[in-house]
């Protein structure tokens, strides 16, 4: 049986760790939050008292932490000094490319195999085991990474070498952030023009305006029953998280000398919505700001 150490059991990691346990793997879990850890234990994971204890006899270590600084410190101070060198290290958090490459080179220098493997799909897909993974790793390690990821995934694609998974994630979420604002602006304009936004959804879904933000995650309540717009924009992918990813894209663009003017504008609009109190709402709630409304508690 594969022994998996799972570190970071929040909105995403909780469901992902549960799917590892469901697949029959022996999961040793750890989170700083006792409530998150207890929930994982209830889902079939073993309880570790520290990261060091969780990783000490692991075949694979999976991390799902908030941001780059968490990943850097957990790897440098706890995982690399305590995991067996044979353990495959897989970081699924969304972090900056530079941190991913720095952790990869420290891990490699210490004799480990490492992959950055951020995910797309949100909490529903984390619970269902249907996330998409974009992986940055040595080509020779990809089959082993795919095997570790399997119980959590519907698609696993190797993007390239270390850091390429994070690059793919940042670029994907920049598309998503921009396209959501485009869809919201069009819905708000349709409303002002006296066109029923639900009718506009039906038409544009079958026209050249079709995109994921419109047809799978419609920000206007009604047309897509599973979308957060139908539950007052609760759950889903928080505006604060989208803002973090757009900031990562802007930082990466500035360092690489890439022109991303729409990404910059999207970051500014989500930052404004965050300032207005929308940070905890699903990112599609930016529709309300574009309609001239303030976020509802
Ligand atoms: P979260 O805040 O719910 O979970 C993070 C967990 O990490 C928390 O439970 C926290 O206690 C734990 N943690 C922090 N520092 C720790 C440490 N030193 N040791 C052990 N545990 C520690 O966040 P989330 O929504 O699960 O997101 C996790 C990552 O996944 C983020 O990088 C996010 O950008 C990315 N992501 C989130 C979504 C989404 O829809 N929520 C979708 C795709 C990707």
What does this entry look like structurally?
This protein has 297 residues and is α/β, with parallel strands linked by helices. It has helices at residues 13-22, 34-42, 51-55, 68-82, 97-109, 122-128, 142-149, 164-192, 197-205, 212-215, 239-256, 261-278, 286-290; strands spanning 3-7, 26-30, 46-47, 60-63, 88-91, 113-116, 119-120, 131-136, 153-160. It is built from 13 helices and 9 strands. The longest helix has 29 residues, at 164-192. The radius of gyration is 20 Å and the shape is globular. The chain starts with a strand and ends in a 7-residue tail after the last helix. Nicotinamide-adenine-dinucleotide binds at residues 7-13, 30-33, 36, 51, 64-67, 70, 74, 93-94, 119, 122-123, 237, 241.
Looking across the biggest beta sheet, what order are the strands in? Answer: 3-2-1-4-5-6
Largest sheet: 6 strands, parallel
* Portion in helices: 40-55%
On the 0 to 100 scale, the average pLDDT is: 96
What is the top-level CATH class of the largest domain? Alpha Beta
Bin the strand percentage.
5-15%
The chain-level structural class is: alpha/beta
SSE order in H/E notation? EHEHEHEHEHEEHEHEHHHHHH
């Amino acid at each position: 049986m594969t022994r998996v150490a799972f570190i970071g059991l929040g909105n995403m990691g909780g469901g992902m760790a549960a799917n590892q346990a469901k697949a029959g793997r022996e999961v040793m879990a750890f989170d700083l939050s006792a409530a998150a850890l207890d929930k994982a234990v209830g889902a079939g994971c073993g309880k570790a008292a520290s990261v060091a204890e969780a990783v000490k006899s692991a075949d694979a270590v999976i991390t799902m932490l908030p941001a780059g600084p968490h990943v850097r410190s957990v790897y440098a101070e706890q995982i690399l000094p305590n995991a067996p060198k044979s353990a495959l290290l897989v970081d699924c958090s969304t972090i900056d490319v530079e941190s991913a490459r720095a952790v990869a080179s420290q891990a490699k220098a210490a004799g480990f195999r490492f992959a950055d493997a951020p995910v797309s799909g949100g909490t529903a897909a984390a619970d269902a085991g249907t996330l998409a993974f974009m992986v940055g790793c040595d080509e020779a390690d990809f089959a082993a990474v795919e095997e570790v990821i399997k119980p959590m995934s519907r698609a696993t694609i190797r993007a390239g070498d270390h850091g390429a998974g994070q690059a793919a994630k940042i670029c994907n979420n920049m598309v998503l952030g921009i396209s959501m604002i485009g869809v919201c602006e069009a819905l708000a304009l349709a409303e002002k023009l006296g066109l029923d936004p639900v009718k506009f959804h039906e038409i544009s879904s079958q026209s050249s305006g079709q995109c994921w933000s419109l047809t799978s995650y419609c920000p206007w309540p009604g047309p897509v029953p599973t979308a957060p717009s139908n539950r007052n924009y609760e759950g889903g992918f928080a505006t604060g998280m989208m803002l973090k990813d757009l900031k990562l894209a802007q930082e990466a663009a500035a360092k690489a000398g890439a022109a991303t003017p729409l990404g910059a504008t999207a970051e500014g609009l989500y930052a404004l919505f965050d300032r207005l109190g929308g940070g905890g709402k699903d990112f599609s709630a930016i529709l309300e700001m574009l309609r001239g409304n303030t976020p509802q508690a």
